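TL;DR need structure tokens for one chain.
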Amino acid sequence: MKRDFLRLLKELDEDELREELKSLYERFPVLREYYKLELSGSTKAVLEKYKAAVRKAFFTGRRRMGKRGRSNSAKIIKDFKEVSIHTKDLIELNFYRVAVMIEAMDYYNVDNEPFFNSMSKSFERAAEMAEKEQMLDTFREMADKIVTSLEEIDFSGGATDLRYKFWEYWPRARG
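>> reply
TL;DR here they are.
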């Protein structure tokens, strides 16, 4: 498949390539989103759009949390990953998802293990990405606020597990 695509690219002249790219841009929203990020000086507007979508996945405007909040928010992050040009933005969106999940736990009185486990795994995944990209210092304060917010509402002891995960990635923060 890739070989055929590369052959096609070689066969097209410069004007045909421009037309092909223009056609793809018009046809695929994900490509428009990618170029919006690539060509603008700032990724803030697009990142805020995805943050709002993550928030809406949990806070639907109804009295109850959306049944598919976790899966919908995971899909939103997956979609953002396809267009994101800076890993820092992806890490930030992942940590934001964890913060929103904790806020939803408090607001809707969510006390179920699968939800907590999903939130905990999301925190760890975001911390792993920050570590891989050598951005732990950049996200230390955000991660600490997330853990602290869980500690403030947690009465079952699960926040202790998250605090230990925090210390795994930020051992100097241990006091």
